[in-house]
Amino acid sequence: MTPQPWIAALTVLGFILTAGGLIAAYLSAKRQPGLEEKRIEKSQELSKAYMAEIAELTRQQSDGAVGYMINVRYHALYAENQLIRPTIESIEYLAAEDSKRLIEMILVSTRGNLIWAGVGLMLSSAASLWSVFI
After folding, report:
1. Domain residues for 99?
2. I need a labelling partner for 102 at 20 to 30 A (CA). Which of 16, 38, 39, 108 fits?
3. Per-residue pLDDT tens over the stretch 54-78
4. Residue 123: other Cβ atoms inside 10 A
């Protein structure tokens, strides 16, 4: 049996894996900002609720212990939702941390797809080299 059908099959399989991996990686990366938008909405929701509780606390002229408990509760809510609570201390690095986290999410979500694309490139390259030596 001649090797031409095997070479053609490897070339086609390599193309399918490469194209599929790259398309899947693109779609996965494209989905991440939408997920990030949900996190932003949750952060804004928590911030508004916190501000409303603090305003009510101020209006009632409650003591500092109640305010401290509200702070602790909202700190836990932010952590539970994997958010960084904006404070005077965190404002300096908040944007950098969120950018870093988004880039890491995109890299993690595309890693497997890019591996498939790499396998496809290797198969296509092997088929090309094999065809040279026939």
Report:
1. 4-132
2. 16
3. 888 777 776 777 778 888 888 898 8
4. 20
